[in-house]
Amino acid sequence: MAVYFDHHIEAPDSVGSPSHIAWHSSYTLLAVASVSTAGGGSVDIYQEQGNHIANSHTERSSKPTLLSWHPLKQILAIGWESGEVLIFSEQDGDQYMVPPVHSSVITVLEWNRTGSHLVTADKHGILALWKLDHRGRMQGNPHMKQEYRKCISHCVFQPPPPGEDLVQLAKAAVSGDQKALDMFNWRKAGKGDHLKAGPQGGLTMFIGAADGYVYCVDEKGKRSQVTCADGPVWQLMYLEKKEVLLVVTENMQLSRYSITPDGTGQELMKVKLSGKASTCADIIWLDGGILATATGEVVIRVWDLERDDNYVLSLEEQLGFEPGECVNSISYCAAKCILAAGTSKGRIAMWQNVPMAIRNTQKVEGKERWKLQAPTELEGNISQIKWGSNKYLLAVNTSNTVLILSEHTMSVCLNQQVAAVQVAPKQLNITYFSSGMQHSLRTDIHIKGVFVTKETIIVWNGKQINVVEPSGPVLQNTASFLCDSLAVAVHEENIYTVEPHRVQVRTLQGTVKQLLVFSDSEGNPCLLHVCGSFLTVGTDTGHIKVFDLSRREAKAHSNVKNMSELIPGFGGIVSAKCNANGGKVSLLVRRADGAPDSKMYFYDVELDTLSFFDFSDGHLYNEGPHGDNIDDQKHHLERAELLGHYPISHFWDPDESRLFACEVVKALLGPNKQCVLDDSKREGSSEPVESFVISFFSTQEHGVLFQDSFPLLPAHQALLGLEVPYFYFTKKPGEEEKESGAAPESAVPQMVAKRALRDFVGLEDCDKATREAMMNFSFYLTIGDMDEAFKSIKLIRSEAVWENMARMCVKTRRLDVAKVCLGNMGHARGAKALREAEQEPELDARVAMLAVQLGMLEDAEQLYKNCKRYDLLNKFYQASGQWEKGIETAEGHDRVHLRTTYYNFAKHLEAIADRNLALTFYEKSDTHRFEAPRMLLEDLQALEIYVNKMMDKNLWKWWAQYLESQSSMESALKYYDLAQDYLSLVRVHCYLGNIQKASEIANETGNRAASYHLARQYESQDEIQQAVHFYTRAQAYNNAIRLCKENGLDGQLMNLALLSSPEDMMEAARYYEEKGDQMDRAVMLYHKAGYFSKALELASATQQFVALQQIAEDLNEKSDPALLARCSDFFIEHGQYEKAVELLLAARKYYEALQLCLDQNLTITEEMAEKMTVSKDSKEISEESRRELLERIADCCMRQGNYHLATKKYTQAGNKEKAMRALLKSGDTEKIIFFAGVSRQKEIYILAANYLQSLDWSKDPEIMKNIITFYTKGRAYELLAGFFDACAQVEIDEFQEYEKALGALTEAYKSLTKAKMRNTEEQEEKLSGLQKKITLVKRFIQARRIYEEDPKESIRQCELLLEEPDLNIAVRIGDVYGLFVEHYTQQGNFQMAYRCLEDMRKKMPTVNVKYYVKQETVDTVHQALGIPVSHSSTSECIRHNSIEDGEEVEDVSDAYNEVEGNLRTVA
User: Partner of 894 at 20 to 30 A CA spacing, among 297, 834, 1312, 1406?
Assistant: First the structure.
């Protein structure tokens, strides 16, 4: 909480009443102009606390009219009524007169922005522009002089165009800014930007005259008219951002102009402002295009030019203002966003401008942007008020005196169970918690700081220190001494103060007994803090050092540490405090831009490491092994409402070194883009800034751990301190009266409140051992060590402690510990709920139930979401009254319980008397048919309207029943008809005697219930035919049959029995059997009823063969076997063998059925064969009998030529060889190949290969491949060799391909060598035969190959071949002779060619020569010798296999090549 100290100026005795005041913008210098009652006036300059500056008094015989400070230097310009202009330099105390130019009242006194020029003007219209030299003196004659011949009232300079601020750049360069240095160093190419300076001075100005004219004067003195206003100019303002000129006249006319390059004005807007015209009114410019005026009215009028809005700010009586209190003067402080106003009753009103962050988020506009604070009470009528200086001081002129108000944060201190709270500039409220005593301490100095111990109270103002000690029931001032120190601390009998580069250790009387020295680089001490026996010192250069005070003299406990080296963007230390053992130092710092830092820093003295907790994102960063900061993911602050804050105060517990607490507030963005604290937090506004108190544990082993947090109560001002077991808070003004009630006037108000730590609720008065145990419990609970926490408190009997531990069990999911906690709490309901929740499979669901019982609803909600138990989440929302969330959850995730949720919500709405909405949700839950009539039963009119509106059959029926109960039969019939409740219609009509109408309804609708009711009515009236009819329509056939039997209606009885149930059929059959004259009907009914034995017996007895036929057709395998056998015998007797076979199969007499098929030559179909086949799992016959039966079935199929079916049955019987033989008879090559492949038996492979070899395999390569594969898999190498031999012969006979034949013979030889023949001699003989064939073929192939190179050698070898006795077994003789004929023909030896032809004919008389020799060659030989060609009958081609298609031959040859390639792999 802040207060304003008011300092009266120490004016000289000769000074008169103050007339006006002026602040320097950068220094704490206030100029006050005074007017003497005797005539004349004076000007004096004062410092921050009202001290008069020596040699600053200036007095003249005329009155001072204007005061104007130089914008940069400590130079004041003073204008007088006589036309004099005096320049006073505060720095050297020198003053001099400006050369005389004016002879009348000075009306304008204005510096340009840089202070290089001064404009003066008087009432007669003379305007002069003066230039200052480097000493601050005017340079002779004016730089420019103009005469207007009319009073000049206002002047405003136009700022220069954008350029670099040379002064600021120079300061930055001196401080070491490399970029600024580069900009000044134009020779340094390639670095930084070039220096762009705007026109120095910015001398273009706008002049306002009393007649309403406004002029623009440029730097060269050229004057141009901007505009001519409607009245005298009251105010001129230049809006730099918009580059427009505002002109306000005395008749409240506001005009806005844009200035052209030639100096003329273009009017943009013109508006008449409300309010009374006054020459002494204030009009000022606020932030964001807002204009405010105070014209002596009870309100301040505000115009928002950007939004085209206007409103008024009024004084509020509830804050202490009086009715009719007028506002005389206003002033705005842009840095603090505060509008201050002085009133006619001596009060200062302050409006706080809502920060930009709140405006953007809460859409605050207009009047709502300004929050009026409590007033500051002064004396007299305030005529003028001004903000100024670099410390934002407020000067107030009350016409009698001038006061300087400086803002000061209220001093507070908590130490050793003593609290001191400043309640006024010179008053403290002292509270001793150990004794409960309270004191009000008044001092003779403005209190700027306070420190308390059990025995001592120290107060100071920066110049003087007062020592106060309690003496019985009163406080006595025991010592007072001068000391220029703004930081003071006390430990035992020592007072610690600061001065440049050292800390002084003084006695309570002020005597210095020790000095703690700091070097120049370490800076000047400016912060002191004592905790336990340790003193923390912070310097203005960012260094900290800890001293140990436990000895007689203070000793260094740590080395000096420079925080600027550890903290990036460091701007300075705001506060530094150490813990009770001196091991940790917590720091609040500000950034380089002056904004508060959102981080709480912790420096470990022993480890020399720095960690910090960032409240902006909730992350803890610990220093890594290489000095880098590592994000500790385990200790993130998960509560979203705590993020986006920054700390403003921090405290360590004086005894528990691990416990730390701080207060954080929401970070808001002020107008300078810095984090600011809204004053509404401190003043109890209706929209306070969120403020929280957060506690931590800090240790070397675990770092910084979040322990607890809670929001600051509205009645509390700020956190005062922490001393286990309490947090202490200062109260807001006025809250102490609320709590104390009607306290006596002499009672001292209680300004301090306390709140127990979370784990100490109920244990506030515990002893030291219990307190230590509870602290250990809190610590172990924070680090998640449940076992140690449990050990710490197992002897403590406090429900609050156990409840805290149970709450922690929700975080750690330790349900075993939670059960113990609930037991110690006596929480029977929670224990029962937790035991019931153990049935839930998800751990989070069980923990959520614990959270619900402990009131941790947010945690329970999140747990249910985590485990996706939306059904339990839905129940949770319903139980907690969050119906909208419950319905949303049911609609999105728990649709199984959607209708139940609607129903429960409807019950809730009904309970709170919201019937319309309840009806809506009853309808959604589909329970409105019952619930709506129940709810609306007391309001029959509303109920009838609802029933008619819904148009629901069930509701119509209910309403009809209700009307019927009220004897309103006609209305009931109407609604029964709408509901289509035909039974009720028939029932009511019968009741009313309208049985004919009831019959029509029953016949038209066919409603069974209505028909039954009507049949009962007719039966009661002995109308049997009608009763039977309606019983039939109602399908109540037993009642109809009963009536037919009773009344002899045999004709209808048969039809009704056939429509009815089997029981009714049997009853009717017995009826016919007993009568004996309609036995056919009895047989039929027994048959239809499923009583086949009785039907068969009765049909046989009465010789009803047609009925027997029908009965047999309905028999199946589920029928009685004996009955089936009887029927089969019947069909055999009558020659219906197929039907008999079916019945025998149904009776599972397979052999009899099979024998009957054989005897009667019946074809066994696949269906019959399947019925004869017994499954392997059947226990009717043994496995051997089953196989025998299957083979007999297969044998029968073989005899009937059904080879495929025989194959199937042989296979099922396990006789695959017989199955293959049956399949071979079928000739189905594809199935034979498939069966051989899946059987995998040698015999099967050989049978299949033998069969395939019987086919025309030479034309189908697939068959050849399968033959080779099957012989190979069947290891029939002898047969395979024979097949290869046959292949070789085919190659020779069909294609003359001796090379391929040689390959086949080679494979045959290899296969035969693998064969294991019983007769080895025979095998050797066959091998030698094959070898001989191979040799002959090789010789012939060799002879043909060398023919091209050596024909003679080739012919010679062929001649040798012809001499071989068994040549024809391998090489055809015709091929050898053919080679001879071709050779001799080519040689031209036709005689030898002819001789060869003749020899060939003699050796092969039955073979056509043309088969071996081309016909062209034969014709050539005969023509050459003149021998005619003979055509005998023996010349026909005798070949084993004819070739019809050359292409096909080529295909087979290619196929064999493929087979030959595969042979080697298979072999």
Answer: 834
